Amino acid sequence: MKKELKNRKRTLSRLMTVQIFYQYEFFEKKQNLDEIKENLIENYVLFEGEEPQSYHDKIDKNLINNLLNSIANEIAEIDENILNLQNNSQKIDNVARQIIRFATLELKLFQDIDFKIIINEYVDIAAHFFSETKVSFINSILNNLAQKYR
Questions:
Q1: What band does 143 get if pLDDT is binned at 50, 70 and 90?
Q2: Residue among 130, 74, 53, 63 at smallest CA distance from 99
Q3: CA torsion angle for 52, 94, 79, 126 (degrees, to 10)?
Q4: Are 64 and 13 in contact (CB under 8 A)?
Q5: CB 50 within 8 A of CB 109
Q6: Which of 13, 74, 123, 148 has the highest Cβ tally under 10 A?
Q7: How many Cα neighbours within 13 Å face the side chain of 126?
Q8: Three-state SS string across 80-120, please?
Q9: Domain boundary assignment for the chain
Q10: What gap in Å lies between CA 19 and CA 14, rounded to an integer?
Q11: How large is the C-alpha radius of gyration of the chain?
């Protein structure tokens, strides 16, 4: 999956969106979101050991902008829904939370995209970061959220 990610424009765009928003929150929203976005796109490292390079021609900028512009209006409701589904014995770390947030955003707003495609995309992104157990956990949460929004 990891090697083919580079050739999947929308998946790569989703991955970058997750990472852009992760950085934005990591810096406590004190850095400009557009600056973080441009810096990440211009100096991106997809695989360990790879030199930073520009990904401007490998992404869907409209998708990234749409997701980043939409999250502010939806984040409180999305976080509440995630919290309601969260198993108290398993905490959701910040990267997983971003993955779940953006998948939920798409499930809610992009009704024209089959929910299975959205879930599959974000499960693939989760696999870029986590072990199979954590990926299964994320998949389970996304399936529950899909029932709510679809």
A1: very high
A2: 130
A3: 60
A4: yes
A5: no
A6: 13
A7: 29
A8: HHHHHHCCCCCCCCHHHHHHHHHHHHHHHHCCCCCHHHHHH
A9: 2-149
A10: 9
A11: 15
- The two structure tokens encoding residue 138: 């994320």
3-state DSSP helix/strand/coil % of the chain, to nearest 5:
75, 0, 25
**What's the mean pLDDT in 22-30?**
95
Q: What is the pTM of this model?
A: 0.92
Q: Tell me the two tokens of residue 127.
A: 């696999």
How far is Cα 17 from Cα 113, in angstroms, rounded to an integer? 18
Distance spanning both ends of the chain, measured CA to CA: 27
CATH class belonging to 2-149: mainly alpha
Q: What is the mean pLDDT of the chain?
A: 92
* pLDDT (tens digit per residue) in 74-116: 999 999 999 888 765 567 899 999 999 999 999 999 999 999 9
Burial label for 141, CB within 10 Å (0-12, 13-18, 19+), is: buried
- Single-letter amino acid, residue 11: T
